[in-house]
Amino acid sequence: MTTSRRDFIKIMGGAAGAVGAAAAGLSASEASAAPVSSVERGTVTEPKLSITGIPKEVSITNVDMAKKPAFENTIGSGTEMCVASPGVLLFGPDMDPVEARRLLKARKGYYFGPLNQIPLTACTSEHLPQSTAISLDEGSHVVLTGAKLKLTVGEIKISVDGDPTNNWMIIIKATFADGEVDSDLNKTVFVDDFVPGHAQAMRMPPGAFIDEEFFLANAEASHTGLGGVTGNEGASKLNVLMVDTNTGAVVWVENIQKQGQPAGPWTTKGTNIKR
Question: How many domains is the chain built from?
Fold first, then answer.
């Protein structure tokens, strides 16, 4: 079935809400943060990233990247580490019933529900800081979205911060499944200091890659405000951080879509993968 990304969002049954909102009026932290790339950044209009607990370099031969003919990735810029077609996805009640049954039987797709689409809303008595935990199931991915997030998974610590023009998406690849019964390789993603009610987590079905069309549909929702996320008109910048917990490989890409214009190309902002 061929469909536009806008129609695909409808098929997901309002799942555009999976993209975390960049809270209106939220400004970037003044604290300095070291991005993955060697380029120094730090102005209040530039998205900020700080990450520790990863190798300085990871050989591309050690990273599971989507390759033809089994998989296809049309985005490039290193996104082949987590995104490709065919891939796993979440969908809503408007999905074709036959296709839904096929995906469910193959464990390649799940209906959106409270176990896999999780709003980050936990509050302390003072409302800040926030803290919650998400299961990172072996052989799968967790996708987190929001304007401001701090998270820890194992030795890896990540902090992202932006401004009203930017939304963040963080994709964490879990430990590869070992195919063994009575063996639990699940990990936990601890999430701190998010904007309550304006950040979400998606626990994806098990699979090597997230479906490319699903990924791009969520990117479009971030840019355009479909589903009421990132304000009514969306956010012009989307920064995506992909982290492989098996190797410590990291890819940071950005996409910009100015109001009323088509999305621009995906650009690599930083990576530790050595080709």
Answer: 1
